[in-house]
Amino acid sequence: MDKIAVNVKNENDICTITLSDITGNANNLSKCIEITKHFACGNELFFGHYRTDGISLTQNEWIKYGKEIPEYFRKNGRYEPLTGMVQEKRRVKQLQGYLTIGSLPMADKTFEILPWIFHYYLETICFCPEIDWKTYSKSFQAFIKHGAREYVSNGFAEFLFSYCDSGEFSISFNRTQHDQDAVLQSIQKILFIP
User: Fold this and answer.
1) Crossing angle between the packed helical segments 26-39 and 180-192, to the nearest 10 degrees
2) Domain ranges, residue 24
3) Which of 20, 26, 124, 168 has the most CB atoms less than 10 A away?
């Protein structure tokens, strides 16, 4: 296994543990999937995607997953393109085609398709929701401006998972609800199990 850099950042009560240098080794990405499985608790996962990317995909994979991923979401959950909002000078500009949200059941097949989802989109977040779909849809429209950094502090998610196609995977959680050292130990155990 290639060496994965593990960084811990605390901001107020929120801890974010980031694993860097994930790309290039399928085993590293599978460890991120195992971490997600370990900490995700619920019956459903909400997803948020920012732009398509596919730099890690071949042309045939790009075409295949560009069709199959949306179909899988629609067949097994929900899939909804959104209009992103950004402030430019004194007016709000609407951006189409940048944001998509979806939901899938907490199931083995969902975790099997997760690596392709991570590679197909430039950035993906996922979490077990503690909010309803309508609230999530409205909040994710501001993702371009704010990201998802407040999802944990606002109580939308107990654990928030994020993957950037640059090769970074992170997990964020509230340190007042979960022991930071215990979470870090669980992550390290998963990372270093052969």
Assistant:
1) 140
2) 5-45+54-65+103-136+149-192
3) 124
